[in-house]
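Hi all, posting the design record for the shared folder.

TITLE: backbone redesign
STEP: 1 of 1
STRUCTURE INPUT:
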């Protein structure tokens, strides 16, 4: 739509685009935040309710699938960003992340936190990626959740069990969340 075609054309190809995004997420144009931005251009919120529900359901299902996979296989945070870009309930998406907790879900969380300093904690080490375009209230919801006890507890528990090849993910996330001075943990 941004180069050739109309909203109707995008809608026509959307099932295949979503399939590619869920099963081959490395193709250009199949990144969930990009799909969400194109849906926005296509005024998807004006589509029939059943079609809107189908889009939401695909994003929710792909998010659930991705967060249950190892970060070497897929970056689940792209689906979370897409959910936020569509205006879906980010709190609901976050609630499912650690319920039930799994090793890969916590590794996905560790990966995400390692990317999070500028995106969610106001640090200036990068521009925030796709999250820069997300509603500030949704970003704040994510930041608050990331700083919660459940997240820290999940990372600390995984740190005890992490394979050597994954330990760097957990260590990086803990460095972001824990203060350098342990006296600040009061």
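Okay, here is what came back for every position:
SEQUENCE:
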């Amino acid at each position: 739509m941004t180069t050739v075609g109309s909203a109707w054309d995008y809608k026509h190809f959307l099932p295949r685009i979503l399939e590619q995004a869920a099963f081959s997420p490395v193709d250009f144009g199949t990144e969930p935040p990009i799909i969400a931005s194109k849906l926005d251009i296509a005024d998807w919120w004006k589509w029939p309710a059943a079609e809107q529900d189908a889009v939401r359901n695909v994003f929710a299902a792909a998010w659930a699938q991705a967060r249950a996979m190892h970060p070497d296989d897929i970056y689940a945070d792209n689906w979370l960003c897409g959910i936020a870009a569509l205006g879906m309930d980010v709190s609901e998406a976050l609630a499912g992340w650690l319920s039930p907790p799994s090793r890969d879900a916590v590794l996905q969380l560790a990966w995400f936190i390692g990317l999070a300093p500028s995106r969610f904690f106001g640090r200036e080490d990068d521009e925030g990626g796709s999250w820069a375009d997300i509603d500030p209230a949704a970003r704040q919801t994510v930041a608050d959740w990331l700083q919660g006890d459940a997240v820290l507890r999940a990372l600390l528990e995984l740190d005890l069990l992490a394979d050597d090849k994954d330990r760097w993910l957990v260590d990086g996330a803990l460095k972001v969340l824990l203060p350098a001075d342990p006296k600040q943990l009061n």
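COMMENT: Residues 7-178 form one domain.
Let me know if anyone wants the other runs.
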